[in-house]
Structure formats: C-alpha cells, structure tokens
Write a structure and sequence with these properties.
By secondary structure, the protein is α/β, with parallel strands linked by helices. It is built from seven helices and ten strands. The protein has helices spanning 45-52, 87-96, 110-128, 142-153, 171-180, 199-211, 229-243, and strands spanning 3-8, 11-17, 27-32, 60-65, 69-70, 80-81, 135-140, 160-164, 186-191, 216-221. Keywords: Hydrolase.
Length: 244
C-alpha cells in the first residue's frame, strides 16, 4: 500500500497516493478526521476515491493529518481531537433533542488547532511547490470545522473546501473572514438525522457562504453523523474537475 507516515510542522500525518515514482501530484487533498477518531481514520478514503476514479491515480495525493490532542486520558486509546469537547454537555443535548446553537462559540483550543493545521498546510505547500490553488481542504465533523477556519484564513484561497457533517462556529469571525477572502468552491453534505451536529447548523453555515457569493454544492441526506455515498461521488467529481 503506497502509504507513508511523516511529521510536518507540529502534526503527524499519513500520505497516500498511487503516483508514478518521481511524479508530483496536480492536486493535494488534505483531509482531517473528527473528534475521537485515530489519526488514520479517513485514510481508506484515498484508495476508495482512486478506485472509483482511476484517472486520478496519476494526479492526486491525499494527506491525512492527525489532530494534536490525545484522548487517552478520556479512555479513548488512539483517539485524537482538534480541541476538547464537553462530552457531558453533548450527551445531554443529544438525550434532550435540543438543537445545539454554537454560532457564537469559539471553543477553547480551536484557534490554536487551526493555526497548527494552517502551518502544516503552508509547510506542505512549500515542500511540494504547488500553489495553494491546487490544494483541497476538507474533513469530517470537527475536522471539517477546523478546515473551514483554515480555508478562510489562508493567504491564497484553496482549490476547494469539503465539509462533511460540519457546522457554523464563531459566526462573526467567519463572516469577517469571508468578507475578506476570495471565494472558492465549497462541497458540503449533512444528514437530516444528525444528533451530534444538528442539520440546522449546517444550513446556517451554507447560508453564510451563500451570502458571501461562495459557490456551494450542498447535499442533504436522510441519515446520521456520517459521510454518505453522494458525498463520496461528488468528492470524486470535484477532484476530476480540478485535474481535468
């Protein structure tokens, strides 16, 4: 399996590609995992996307950074987090069925994690020689949220942002960043039965991007907190369009 493990900046990562020896990728996709998952949680997406879209095998490299925080002390061996969550609060909200409106929140550790991911991407960009316009940023859940912050804050816009089961955080900050940022395509999906990051939060995020003239492709599906088939299909199409 063409998989390597490296440390770039402050983050460890797994890199997957099927590129011929000494051939550089046309696009690098940096995909960040969610809270509680191990750093290699989303690595299987690399070979799956390439098997579905064979023309991408000579063109795309996938990079999967591991979040900086260990959750061993929380009883989750191997689990990682971009920032810590109040699990009791989350479980109470799920049990009550109340919508968690997090628009005004900037969680402790969130901006620090975003800075580490941003520095990771800049270092990867310098090393690869590719411009940021050939980088796709994305992730699942907490990983998609930190990727949103980074995408809005980069010195140049990325090729695209992929948000699987994300939400709107630090609303005023993101509005300010969106007003200053050059636009880029956004691919977003969210389950209507998501108990962890409710569907309303995804709609608020979608509307924020739309209000600032970002081109957004939003897929809703009947399901929970997950990455659906339609999201995988559209991710492959996005990468194909970027390399076409």
């Amino acid at each position: 399996m063409p998989l390597t493990t490296r440390t770039i900046g402050a983050l460890s990562c797994q890199i997957y590609d099927e590129l011929p020896t000494n051939q550089n990728p046309e696009v690098i996709a940096v995909i960040s995992h969610g809270f509680g998952a191990p750093g290699d949680d989303l690595v299987p997406l690399g070979p799956e996307i390439l098997n579905r879209n064979p023309a991408l095998k000579n063109r795309v490299q996938f990079v999967f950074p591991a979040a900086p925080l260990s959750l061993l002390e929380m009883g989750i061996p191997g689990g990682r987090a971009w920032w810590m969550l109040d699990i009791e609060e989350l479980n109470a909200a799920i049990a009550s069925g109340k919508i968690r409106d997090q628009r005004a929140k900037t969680p402790e550790g969130f901006l620090e994690a975003s800075q580490k991911l941003s520095e990771f991407i800049i270092e990867l960009q310098k090393e690869s020689g590719l411009p940021l316009s050939q980088f796709v940023l994305g992730g699942f859940s907490q990983g998609s949220i930190v990727s949103t912050e980074v995408a809005l804050n980069l010195p140049e816009p990325p090729a695209a942002l992929v948000i699987w089961s994300g939400t709107l955080l630090c609303e005023q900050r993101w509005i300010s960043l969106a007003e200053k940022s050059k636009t880029f395509p956004v691919l977003q999906s969210h389950g209507k039965q998501d108990p962890i990051l409710p569907f309303d939060g995804a709609i608020w995020l979608k509307e924020m991007f739309e209000q600032h003239q970002f081109e957004i492709d939003f897929s809703e599906f009947m399901g929970p907190h997950t990455i659906p088939e339609v999201a995988m299909e559209k991710f492959g199409i996005l990468l194909t369009d970027l390399t076409g």
